[in-house]
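Lab meeting minutes (informal)
Scribe: AK
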Amino acid sequence: MAGSQDKLEKMKLRQDYRNLWHSDLMGTVTADTPYCCISCLCGPCVSYMLRRRALYNDMSRYTCCAGYMPCSGRCGESKCPQLCLATEVFLCFGNSVASTRFLLQDEFNIQTTQCDNCIIGFMFCLSQVACIFSIVACIVGSDELSEASQILSCCADMVYCTVCACMQTQHKLEMDKRDGVFGSQPMGVPPAQQMSRFDQPVPPAGYPQSYPPPAQGYPPASYPPPGYPQH
């Protein structure tokens, strides 16, 4: 119980993050249209490449679901991280996208805007409603209700694929900014233990949310670099 409470408190820290994504979900389609289309057509492959890139192409840092799930660290990742990551993105695609998102948020103190939260929440709600309709249609045995549930499930799948594609494009743009693709000086590779704040202690009562202070030199005090728009 104490461990679960501790994790909940650590997750609440994201509400106090002050940096913003380089592009919100609504803007990713125009910000990088080709990549968004590729993410929609081959989501698991893109998820694999983005997680590897988020880890600075160092697979020795890899942990299943980035350390955010109960199975993390128990899947033999250290023996064959490439195979474990491939299994994660194909069998647990939604978790793989969310884990990469949390990894970037915790590394760069990025908050999710209310608009993005509404889009992601709508995606989950629509999927749940579609599932409930399918169960009711099976119990009742009505052809009309069954057809309606199939249409709703199709809509839910389309929304799911679209939102995940936009999220992955958002992650890609953020790492482009990190790596200096937009013209800024690329950021240095942090030590492995600083890749995520999730496993760091919750600040004691009365301390600022930045407790404990980050290691000297990373992340830079001027992040995001000057010149980048704060959406």
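Next up, CB showed the second protein from the same session:
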Amino acid sequence: MATVRENVSLLFKLYCLTVMTLVAATYTIALRYTRTSDKELYFSTTAVCITEVIKLLLSVGILAKETGSLGRLKTSLRENVLGSPKELMKLSVPSLVYAVQNNMAFLALSNLDAAVYQVTYQLKIPCTALCTVLMLNRTLSKVQWISVFMLCGGVTLVQWKPAQATKVMVEQNPLLGFGAIAIAVLCSGFAGVYFEKVLKSSDTSLWVRNIQMYLSGIVVTLVGVYLSDGAEIKEKGFFYGYTYYVWFVIFLASVGGLYTSVVVKYTDNIMKGFSAAAAIILSTIASVMLFGLQITLTFALGTLLVCVSIYFYGLPRQDTTSIQQAETASKERISGV
């Protein structure tokens, strides 16, 4: 009976990872199409804000189905959202940290060469693994650590683009760039693992946690809209440049966000990283057929590294999908002596 449960659990995790990978790959392809085909480009900041709103509405809908009645839904929202400002503040941390990460990544890209940025930013993968070990009291085997760094190298090669000469001279501050990329990498690892810890440290519904986080996310993205494109949005309108394809991209981003939370809940952030790498490869292969993109040697080598790293990380190992508790039994034996 236990074996059957384990097999069902494994199949469910594989299903979540597969769907997340496919959604992420489709999103990347659709996003590339909208940014290259639409004559009047939309404001990406407004798209991010609308994505947060849709994720919030979808989470409320799923919670309504989970609770079974409108009355229970209201009670759940009143107790866990309106009546729990402390929990709201707790879930606002990832939103704020992700906002800092995005700004630091942009600052780093402005002060570093594109190639240097591509390599250093992938350090967020081993940083996530390190945060997982430190914050969730987990252990990774030597093979798993090797596979994590192999994944880091593989993603770097897959996304590698040769530097292009330009006549425009841009003043850069490498020291500022490396400082910004270090902060962005730390923020990426911390925010993801922090959210995982909050999800797995209590019996609160996943969808309640999502609602708490998306509420703060809406506030953060609205601030970003105002600071980045406020003047232009006043002139052209909030939905300037929106087409059916743009709405499709926003919908995919929303569904992908929900599946990401499911993956974090039932697997972990490291597996999410492997899934994201697989999505990059799938979207690039699809772009070859749809947009005439050419496969390079570095992409082929990177794909090989990613596949090998996924295989090695998936070898039989200790379960890392639940927070490990301290071994109180061994401590009791030591104290007894």
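CB comment: Residues 10-315 form one domain.
No objections, moving on.
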